[in-house]
C-alpha cells in the first residue's frame, strides 16, 4: 500500500502552535485551569503537542473508545476506559484526532455532560469537510477531503500510528 503525504510535519506543528494560542485566548478570561480529555488511541500525538502550546494549567484525563474496524465506522462505540477524575464545574476540553460522522464524539459528549462540567468544548486535529458530523468541534486544526488518513496517531488496523505526518492510503 502506498502512503502519500497530506499534511507534513512542519505544517502540523505550526498549526498546533496557533491552535494552542486560540485555545488559550478562549479560556484565559474564564479560568486558569482546564481539564483536557484525550480520546485514545488516535489523539495521543495531537494531545501531547497541543497541551504544550496551551498557556494555562492543564489537567489530563484519558478515554479509550473505538468504533472503527478497518476503514469503516461500525457505528457501535466500545468504551475500553473512561475518565477517573470528577469534572463537575470544570472547563473540559475533549481532544480528538478526527471528526468524521461524529458518532464517537456525540457519545462521549453525551456522557460527559451528565457530570455537569462548567464548560465543554472540543478540539479536533482533522475534520472531514464533506461529512456533516452530528456534533460540532469549536477548535479545528485542518479541514480535509473525505480520504482515509493515517499517521500522527491515526491508524489503519493499528498500523501507521507512529508516522510523524498525516498521510493517506491509495
Ligand atoms: P466518527 O465516530 O465517525 O466521527 O469517527 C471518529 C473516529 O473514527 C476517530 O476518532 C478515528 O479513530 C476514526 N477515524 C475516522 N476517520 C478516520 C480516518 O480517515 N483514518 C483513521 N481513523 C479514522
Ligand atoms: Mg482509530
UniProtKB/TrEMBL annotation:
Indicate what this protein is called per its UniProt record.
Hypoxanthine phosphoribosyltransferase
Broad class of enzyme this protein falls into? transferase
GO MF terms held by the record: guanine phosphoribosyltransferase activity; hypoxanthine phosphoribosyltransferase activity; magnesium ion binding; nucleotide binding
Cell compartments where the protein resides? Cytoplasm
Q: Which Gene3D superfamilies match?
A: 3.40.50.2020
Q: Which GO terms describe its biological process?
A: GMP salvage; guanine salvage; hypoxanthine metabolic process; IMP salvage; purine ribonucleoside salvage
Pathway listed for it? Purine metabolism; IMP biosynthesis via salvage pathway; IMP from hypoxanthine: step 1/1
Amino acid at each position: 500500500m502506498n502512503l502519500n503525504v497530506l499534511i507534513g510535519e512542519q505544517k502540523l506543528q505550526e498549526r498546533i502552535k496557533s491552535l494552542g494560542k486560540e485555545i488559550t485566548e478562549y479560556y484565559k478570561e474564564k479560568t486558569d485551569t482546564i481539564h483536557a480529555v484525550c480520546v485514545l488511541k488516535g489523539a495521543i500525538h495531537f494531545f501531547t503537542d497541543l497541551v504544550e502550546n496551551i498557556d494555562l494549567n492543564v489537567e489530563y484525563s484519558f478515554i479509550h473508545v473505538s468504533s472503527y474496524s478497518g476503514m469503516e465506522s461500525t457505528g457501535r462505540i466500545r468504551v475500553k476506559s473512561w475518565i477517573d477524575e470528577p469534572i463537575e464545574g470544570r472547563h473540559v476540553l475533549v481532544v480528538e484526532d478526527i471528526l468524521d460522522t461524529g458518532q464517537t464524539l456525540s457519545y462521549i459528549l453525551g456522557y460527559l455532560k451528565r457530570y455537569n462540567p462548567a464548560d465543554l468544548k472540543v478540539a479536533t486535529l482533522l475534520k472531514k469537510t464533506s461529512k456533516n458530523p452530528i456534533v460540532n468541534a469549536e477548535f479545528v486544526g485542518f479541514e480535509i477531503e473525505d480520504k482515509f488518513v493515517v499517521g500522527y496517531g491515526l491508524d489503519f488496523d493499528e498500523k501507521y500510528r507512529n508516522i510523524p505526518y498525516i498521510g493517506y492510503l491509495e
